[in-house]
Amino acid sequence: MKYFIIHSFTLGLLLDFTGCLSADRRTNQIPVAPVAPSGIELKVLADTLISVSWTDNSENEAGFNVYWTEESAKENDALAISNAPVDANIIRFDITALKADTEYVIWVTAYDNKLESESISATATTNEKPVFTIKAMSLNIYGWATMPQKAATYAQLIKSRNPDVVGIQEGVDDWKINSKMPTNYRNADALGSALGECWDQNYQIFINTCKGNSYISNRRFDLTDGPNATRTGESAVINNKGMHYAAINVHWDHESGGVRVANAHETATEVNSHPDMPVVVVGDFNANCTGFEVRTMMDEAGLTLIGSAGIDCIIARSFTGISERFSGAPSDHPSLDAELTIGI
Predict the structure, then answer these.
(1) Which of 14, 123, 251, 291 is most buried, judging by how many CB atoms fall within 10 Å of its CB?
(2) Residue ranges matching CATH 2.60.40.10 in the chain
(3) Taking residues 234-258, what's their average pLDDT?
């Protein structure tokens, strides 16, 4: 008897453990692999999901194997991944847990108890990872000197920047008042009236409803008062097309460094009361955005500085972003806003 050593990458031949060509002893015929499937179709359903379908051309398959690998590694069989075998007569399989924005080679074979057919293949690229983006703005309206007479000017500035959320400062009477919390928001209300349609206001936080924002909740939180000013923070949870985020607006004390440190701890506590959502903090901190007081708050609440206009800052958790500083005239402060993005 002669033995033939066969070197081949072609599927459909059955070799015994010695490398010898074997035949079915009952029929004296070489086993034949199932007929290969055809008509492979790939549908990208998400950034991590591709649905694979095919036409079943065999009448005797035990099932199908689906393989996939990144396009850049397609020549390396060791990097190919096979799912658990798909049962016979099933003609669809969803590949999950893929990388976003990545090209994949996907191929399918039919198999029986001994052999695997030739493969059919196709390529597809997963979607880019979806992102959630908002624009936040901070503006000190220099209330005692310019409001309410300049409300329309500030409203036009805000509309020209088209933010999702705005926190203003000096829109409330807080100088040498007797109450624990301010009650007179006449300057903020004047700005709200000037903004008109598309804008909703709670205290000194304004949201752009025409960009899909709506309030879920809002509140004020107490800040340690300065020698002359009653300090109060404002917080809102906002829905934007199904995504929730928190916006916090503060105006820290301008006279006492010790009070500002207390304000830093108090603002960090408010940020940490929203543990399960992205947060943006805007305001007039009356301290350098990279100084000790602001860094104290950032360290305690896991925040990152996004933008600085001296003492006016935009700071965030979970968001990344790019800020822009611009004139806030007639205010004595510059203004700034930031495009904030988070992957979802």
Answers:
(1) 251
(2) 1-127
(3) 97
By DSSP bridging, strand 199-202 and strand 131-140 are: unpaired
Mean pLDDT of 12-25: 42
| Chain segment 142-164, per-residue pLDDT in tens | 999 999 999 999 999 999 999 99
Amino acid identity, position 152: A
Between vectors from CA 222 to CA 219 and to CA 226, what angle results, nearest 5°? 140
Single pTM value for the model: 0.70
Give the Å distances, CA to CA, from 12 to 80, 144, 220, 224.
20, 87, 73, 80
The answer to whether the Cα torsion of 276, 280, 283, 285 is positive or negative is positive
Fold for the domain defined by 131-343: Deoxyribonuclease I; Chain A (3.60.10)
Q: What is the DSSP string of 198-240?
A: TEEEETTEEEEGGGTEEEEEEEEEE----SSB--EEEEEEEEE
For domain 1-127, the CATH class is: mainly beta
From the list 237, 238, 239, 303, the residue with the least C-alpha distance to 267 is: 303
In angstroms, rounded to a whole number, what is the distance separating the alpha carbons of residues 278 and 129? Answer: 17
